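1st attempt posting a full record on here, be nice pls
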Amino acid sequence: MKPTTPPKTYRVKSFGCQMNVYDGERMGELLAAQGITPAPEGEEAELVVLNTCHIREKATEKVYSDIGRLRREDGTSPLIAVAGCVAQAEGEEIMARAPAVSMVVGPQAYQNLPAMLERAVSGQRTTEMDLAAEAKFAGLPQRRTAPPAAFLTIQEGCDKFCTYCVVPYTRGAEISRPFAELIAEAQRLVDGGARELTLLGQNVSAWSGEDAKGHRTGLAGLVRELAKIDGLARIRYTTSHPADMDEEIIAAHGELDKLMPYLHLPVQAGNNRVLKAMNRSHTVESYLRLIERFRAARPDLALSGDFIVGFPGETEAEFEDTLKVVDEVRYMHAFSFKYSPRPGTPAAGMDGQIAPDVMKDRLARLQDRLNRDQHAFNIASVGKTCAVLVEKKGKYPGQWLGKSPWLQSVFFEREDTKIGDLVEVELVEAGPNSLAGTVREPPLT
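the predicted structure (as tokens):
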């Protein structure tokens, strides 16, 4: 690789989960601290960071497609960095197959991006694959500004080793960020404009630490302390594992107004044999009992989930069991995927791989049910009055878009509103993916 001039503009393209969105934002902050500015919309960036997700179907091949699309007509390319979980899993292979790539950095090592960029400018190609998340957070700049709805990573990695999942291999073992560090960062985010915080983790419900008094506490204790921050109006968290949800977090949902009535709790499948093959530690029955306890504590709770169809060996009857769970829970939203083998995971070598056309049919049938329930939830919301956190302008003059407490997208019109306001809105019309509202009162504090 030949030496190049330092880039003046960058673009980070993040794929997949909210953790990747968070990581992409932090990489942008690292680059901005070097004096590199985001490329204007529609203009080519001099540095492109592809922040990849290994959950995507054929994720690795899509990385090479993305790299190829960055090639200019004259045969040159911008500086390219590949980050995220595909980078962690395929680092040296990416370097071998894609000469246009200057940097490959794993999700726990991107604090080294400025130093890697310096070497790339001098003509060196480098990889960084450290899995020590503690070092990552220590090396990131402190955030002084924040959007109205901001992310705060509190936990990384996973020890569950579900047989289909690469997270333990690409993100490492579970680690929890220190309590005091999280409270301080949350305060800075609120001071910088955040009204809502979403606590992030591959298994966020496994977070634990010592509070200000030196007492061991879990997610509920952290949430209760965050709820004391003046100016913070809303708290959410994702993604949880059913095995780590305890009575304290259930009680918090019933007792804390700032903890939003929304819970993302993946089940993945509705049949116990399939769940066991996935190495999920819950059963259908224990999952449904957990849902009942949450709903008893917070009757207006909206449920979201994750589903995988076509796991190796899944029969039609076992898939029908998943549809039964959907019918019983009535999710307001869910993510659903066809099973896709991930190299190195136990499920990739299992017998009984399902034919693509069967998986496609099952996914379509599942999504029909999920879409039905999401629309029904929205329809049932019509007539309610709730606070909407304004996140951006809508398509039309005077129109704004925000989120309800149940994480629904809500459009409304008002002249004297600004981003970050909490506005009292009556929900008056429901569509499959959003609602229309009418303002009833001035913006809330």
